[in-house]
Amino acid sequence: EAGVVQSPRYKIIEKKQPVAFWCNPISGHNTLYWYRQNLGQGPELLIRYENEEAVDDSQLPKDRFSAERLKGVDSTLKIQPAELGDSAVYLCASSSRTSGSYEQYFGPGTRLTVT
Amino acid sequence: SQKIEQNSEALNIQEGKTATLTCNYTNYSPAYLQWYRQDPGRGPVFLLLIRENEKEKRKERLKVTFDTTLKQSLFHITASQPADSATYLCALVLSYNTDKLIFGTGTRLQVFP
User: Which residue of B has its CA nearest to A110?
Assistant: First the structure.
């Protein structure tokens, strides 16, 4: 079974530039999450999707961050414009409650460096 | 304020010994707690889940305890191996109606031969 796929793995941009991250969850997983992980910290939830619907985006800085999950499968997280403080690893995860499991499956993450 | 605290300093132990990692939380009442392992450059990987009404959970060389009175979970790795070296994260979930994980900062474990 393929895991959660993310791309790109690394991205370096200058501040004020836009950037986008892509995530393909595990097949059949209806719940998708985007997390941000700063160095030396645990992941922090940015947004959670149930199928196409964003059910928890309370932690998403909506002035510059946006996300979408078309057709309830792949998802894209965008930052525009990026700031120096956005440098972090952006993790995508997916899960399936229908399997009776509460575990989340994480992708390898995208390491963003804003200069 | 709400906090989840894990040892910020790395834990260094000798191969074969038992590693014990601590997760303390303040001003949360979690329904369950999860432990994840994270290797450098990788995403976290699920290890164990323990519910609020469970005192202990085991899986192979891993054991987790959950004390809701002390607001603490302990994570044990028995007969530790160098391959167990990684960062271990605890995560709280506040209710069964949400999948929202609230992570601690993680503890880096180094097992040396």
Answer: B41
